[in-house]
Write a structure and sequence with these properties.
Immunoglobulin-like; 5 helices; four-stranded antiparallel beta sheet; alpha+beta
């Protein structure tokens, strides 16, 4: 103990030292908590850096997806052959619906990244449509948009038909052509051709061919397969066929190909044979065109059966009553094979020549019982191949379409593109 100090005063000094040390410890802990250290510029700068680091670690949310619809909202007099297009930015489309007032939806397809939707077929003229679309951004935040618009009212409309060649649902032959006739001339042929679909149970290559401004024909490259199922769809509603002329209805037809039937008739041997699926099932003697004048030769080439009637009234072409060569007769069991007056038909009066000479005006004269059998047996589009005459069947004579080479046939397409190649 120091001189002059009591034990009591010494105890007080020790307690003060301990208190001071504790206070210094608290100060150091607080300094560390606020980032103060010896040699630093101070706690305030360090705290600012800490706050900035915390802010930079918080991600910025992605922008919302936006949707653009064409035609735009409240558009009027929209051409029905224009596509409806929906586009998304900053996201992807999750749904698109385009309906008309009568509830008919437009079908369409998405782009591979789901940022664009495009309608597939045309719209109805004089119709009100409502398009609605939804999209999401990267955070799956939804966005919706809609557009209501009207299509124009055309100055004129057109329609199409196939019913005259054979009723929808009919059984047809392997050479059967799909003939579409239009009510008014088609000037924009490529657009109309692209609106046609041929659906087949066994897809084969074929092509459309324009025979005139108001008729287009489809045939396969080779004969249809036996038992083929064919469906024709004409998406003509809203298609622009000519200036101011739009389609106002679609076309649908279906056919079933039967057995493969090939008829072979020779003007030299005077014989006709019927083959079904490659096997001869019937044959008989015939008499064909006598010739002399060009119009009295039977045409050689690939014919197909077109129509039939019993009786069929036949009148001599270009010859008046009372003139030499005139005739006006009712002929039975007549099956048409061209538009130049050629039929396979019954002719009792020439049975004597059938099998040995040609005495007809161009038709294929047959025995009555055989003609009746063929009349009941054939279907429109069965193939009849005639040989042995100098006159060739023209490709535009009736359904002589098989007379055209494939390249020639394809050249008649407005698109130049075969189907199912």
């Amino acid at each position: 103990m120091a001189p002059g100090m009591s034990m009591e005063s010494n105890a007080v000094s020790v307690r003060r030292l301990i208190a001071t040390a504790s206070a210094l410890s608290v100060v150091m802990v607080l300094a560390t908590a606020v980032g103060y250290a010896p040699g630093s510029s101070g706690g305030s700068a360090s705290a600012a850096r800490q706050a900035a680091a915390t802010r930079s670690a918080t991600p910025t949310p992605p922008p919302k997806a936006t949707i653009a619809i064409t035609p735009g909202d409240k558009s009027r007099s929209v051409r029905p052959d224009r596509h409806v297009v929906v586009r998304a930015a900053n996201g992807r489309l999750t749904g698109v619906s385009v309906t008309s007032k009568d509830g008919r939806d437009l079908t369409g397809t998405y782009s591979s990244d789901h940022t664009t939707w495009t309608s597939q077929w045309t719209m109805r003229p004089s119709a009100k449509y409502r398009a609605t679309a939804s999209a999401e951004n990267r955070d799956n935040v939804p966005t919706r948009a809609r557009s209501t618009f009207r299509t124009l009212s055309p100055a004129e409309t057109f329609s199409a038909s196939m019913s005259w060649i054979a009723p929808s649902g009919a059984t047809v032959g392997v050479g059967f052509p799909l003939v579409v006739d239009f009510s008014s001339p088609v000037h924009f042929k490529a657009a109309v051709e692209r609106a046609l679909e041929v659906k087949m149970s066994t897809p084969v290559e074929g092509a459309w061919h324009w025979t005139s401004d108001d008729e287009v024909v489809f045939r396969p490259r080779a004969y249809w397969p036996a038992h083929e199922k064919i469906r024709v769809l004409g998406h003509f509603t809203g298609i622009r066929a000519a200036k101011g002329v739009y389609g106002d209805e679609n076309l649908t037809a279906a056919y079933a190909v039967g057995e493969q039937v090939i008829v072979k008739a020779s003007a030299k041997t005077h014989q006709l044979s019927v083959y079904q699926n490659g096997k001869r099932i019937n044959h008989w003697p015939v008499s064909m065109g006598r010739g002399g004048e060009w119009k009295y030769f039977t045409t050689s080439g690939i014919h197909v059966t077109m129509s039939k009637s019993s009786p069929e009234r036949m009148v001599s072409p270009g010859i008046k009553k009372g003139e030499p060569g005139y005739y006006d007769e009712l002929i039975y069991w007549a099956v048409r094979i061209s538009n130049s007056g050629e039929f396979v038909h019954s002719m009792p009066s020439t049975v004597w020549a059938q099998g040995n000479s040609n005495v007809s005006h161009g038709c294929i004269n047959s025995p009555p019982d055989k003609a009746e059998w063929f009349y009941d047996f054939e279907h429109p589009g069965d193939v009849v191949v005639v040989t042995g005459t100098p006159r060739k069947l023209e490709a535009d004579n009736g359904w002589g379409f098989w007379q055209a080479s494939w390249n020639s046939w394809l050249a008649g397409s407005a698109t130049g593109e075969p189907v199912n190649r």
